[in-house]
Amino acid sequence: MNSADVHLREITDDNRDAVRALRVRRDQKQFVASVSHSLKEAAKKPETRPWYRAVYCGDEPAGFVMLSWRPPAGRYEGRHFIWRFLVDKRYQGLGIGRRALTQVADLVRADGATELLTSYQPGDGEPWPFYRKFGFEPTGEIDDGEIVLRLAFTAR
Ligand SMILES: CC(C)(COP(=O)(O)OP(=O)(O)OC[C@H]1O[C@@H](n2cnc3c(N)ncnc32)[C@H](O)[C@@H]1OP(=O)(O)O)[C@@H](O)C(=O)NCCC(=O)NCCS
């Protein structure tokens, strides 16, 4: 496995089961819903404009990311919000999450956005250090008990 070869792929009939089989550690389940649950939620809530991809490392599915992509209404109206993000427990700590997030941020920036948002549930093993190292900052808002974070894109 070469962790430098990280890329995003669409989820189709050919890889859906493999992506749904991805798992975080038991102690991390408090921070993120499963891929199956997320895909069901996406199907049920088209108004949130769900956008999702599998994270691949070479030819192996290693993670999953889902955004609310410029929803037409609601708290994140017109913005890009990372709703789910996970790297399978077998692949964590290898730089895959950072590489995948870099690619997501590039796509969001290419969509003309000036920022990328997410939120996390505080607790032991929370993903805050991961997002902080990436450049996210708290906005000061709390959304349903979750701390809202923002990555501001600087002009290139
Ligand atoms: C958060 C997550 C996606 C990060 O993916 P990853 O591939 O393990 O992250 P990387 O290997 O790219 O790590 C990048 C940096 O963040 C750090 N980091 C990653 N996850 C961390 C965590 N939970 N706590 C502290 N530091 C963390 C790494 O140590 C690394 O730091 P370094 O650059 O100083 O070495 C992954 O740990 C995960 O799926 N966690 C469970 C689900 C979750 O919390 N998702 C976020 C929901 S909002």
Overall description:
- This protein has 156 residues and is an alpha+beta fold.
- It has a single domain, classed as Gcn5-related N-acetyltransferase (GNAT) (Aminopeptidase).
- 24% of the residues lie in helices and 32% in strands.
- It has helices at 16-20, 35-44, 96-110, 128-134; strands at residues 6-9, 50-57, 60-69, 80-87, 115-120, 137-143, 146-152.
- Strands 1-2-3-4-5-7-6 form a seven-stranded mixed sheet.
- The longest helix is centred in the middle third of the chain and has 15 residues, at 96-110.
- The model has no long low-confidence stretch (mean pLDDT 96).
- The structure holds coenzyme A.
- The site of coenzyme A has 21 residues, from strand 4, helix 3, strand 5 and helix 4.
In short:
With 156 residues, this protein is an alpha+beta fold.
Mean pLDDT: 96
Instruction: Work out the helicity level.
Output: 10-25%
- Class, according to the CATH hierarchy? Alpha Beta
| Largest sheet entry | 7 strands, mixed
Q: Give the strand order of the largest sheet, numbering strands 1, 2, ... along the chain.
A: 1-2-3-4-5-7-6
Number of strands: 7
Give start-end ranges of low-pLDDT stretches. none
Give me the CATH architecture, please: 3-Layer(aba) Sandwich
Ligand inventory = coenzyme A
Distance between the termini: 32 Å
Which percent band covers the strand fraction?
A: 25-35%
Q: Counting H and I runs of at least 4 residues, what is the number of helices?
A: 4
- Output the radius of gyration: 15 Å
Q: Write down the domain tally.
A: 1
Q: How are helices and strands ordered from N to C? A: EHHEEEHEHEE
* Computed structural class: alpha+beta
The H-level CATH homologous superfamily, spelled out, is Gcn5-related N-acetyltransferase (GNAT)
